[in-house]
Specification:
This protein has 161 residues and is of the alpha/beta class. The chain has helices at 49-59, 71-80, 98-107, 125-134, 146-157; strands at residues 3-5, 12-13, 23-24, 29-31, 41-45, 64-68, 86-89, 116-120, 138-141.
Length: 161
């Protein structure tokens, strides 16, 4: 059975990001909305709660989505779940930023082949270079268009049967 971590706040989560019901937890592992499907597994690491919730909701129909609010929580989630098919990272986050998190992911033999997409407000050429050097396959700046994100994720995970 696929699993999904769906925190939407520091101590609250929903089993369905769109249902509006908030339940105490911290972090939680929840069954996927579609047990037995072959939906690609996606980890979203974003410190902004509104952005994290919006991404989980928009991508949840296509992917089995796990979320984390910072790099430390992302490492905890990665230790608990199957290897994701792709990871979406913000760069500017507390505790462990996206560049350092990508370096740690790429140093882990289980995770080193997982494609990373940065979704960030850092738009400078040096930031893009740092992201690619840290191991990202794609670098998308905010504000972004959802079709752009979907297309890049689609190329990263490839077709699923």
């Amino acid at each position: 059975m696929a699993l999904r971590v769906a925190p939407v706040g520091p101590d609250m989560a929903t089993s369905n990001p769109g249902d509006g019901l908030r339940r105490p937890l911290g972090p939680s592992i929840l069954p996927s909305a579609s047990p037995g499907t072959t939906a690609p597994v996606l980890l979203i690491v974003e410190d902004d709660e509104a952005m994290r919730s919006m991404l989980a909701k928009m991508l949840g129909d296509t992917y089995t989505v796990f979320v984390a609010a910072d790099g430390v929580k992302a490492l905890d989630v990665l230790a608990q779940i199957e290897t994701p098919d792709a990871i979406v990272l913000d760069v500017m986050m507390p505790r462990i930023d996206g560049f350092e998190l990508a370096r740690r992911i790429k140093a882990d033999p289980r995770l080193q082949r997982v494609p990373i997409l940065y979704l960030t407000a850092k738009t400078g050429a040096l930031d893009v270079i740092a992201g690619i050097n840290a191991g990202a396959r794609h670098y998308l700046t905010k504000p972004f268009k959802m079709p752009d994100l979907l297309a890049r994720l689609g190329r990263m995970v490839g077709p699923r049967v």
